[in-house]
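Incident log, structure service

09:12 report received: a user says their structure output differs between two submissions of the same chain.
09:20 pulled the input from the user's history:
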Amino acid sequence: VKYRFRWYGDPLQTSNGTYEAKVKDGNVNYKIQSKLKDLDIDILNPPEIKKQIMARISKKDQLILQRLHTTLINKYHREYFLTKGQIRLTIDTEIAYMNPANVDYGYLHDPNIIVEIKSPAEILLPLKMFQDLNLVLGKNSKYVNGVLRTKSITL
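09:34 re-ran on a clean worker, output below:
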C-alpha cells in the first residue's frame, strides 16, 4: 500500500486535494480515497500538510499517517484520452521531483515522457497493437524515479 496526498492545479499550494491509499492486489491496482477541502497548504511545508490532513481523515487513517513522513514532492502535466470501451491512455510530461528535506534546492526535471495505458481487468490488451509506436514497454513509477533522483539532495 502506498499513501499519498494528491491535488491538481498550482504545484505550490492548494485548498482541495485527495488523501489516498494506492493498493496493489496481484495484477490489479485500486485506490481508496478521501476528498479533503478547505485546506490552506503551502506544499513546501510538509509538517503543516500532515497536520491539516490529520485533522480531516478518519481515526483509522490517522493511526497510519502518524507513522509516515513525506519522502517526495513531484509534479507533472497529464493529458487524458478515454475510449468508449473504458481503455484510458495518459501522457505525462514536464515531470519534476523535489526532496522535501531540502526544498531550497528546488525541482529536478525529468526529460522522460510517460505513456500509460489502463483498462478494466476483464479487457486484455494485445501488446502487438503497441509495437509500432516505438515505446519502451515496462513498469514505471514516478515515485521510485523521484526518490532515486533526489536521494542525494539532503540538508
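09:41 both user submissions now match this output. Likely a transient worker issue. Closing.
09:42 reviewer note: The first strand starts at residue 2 and ends at 6. The chain has a mean pLDDT of 86.
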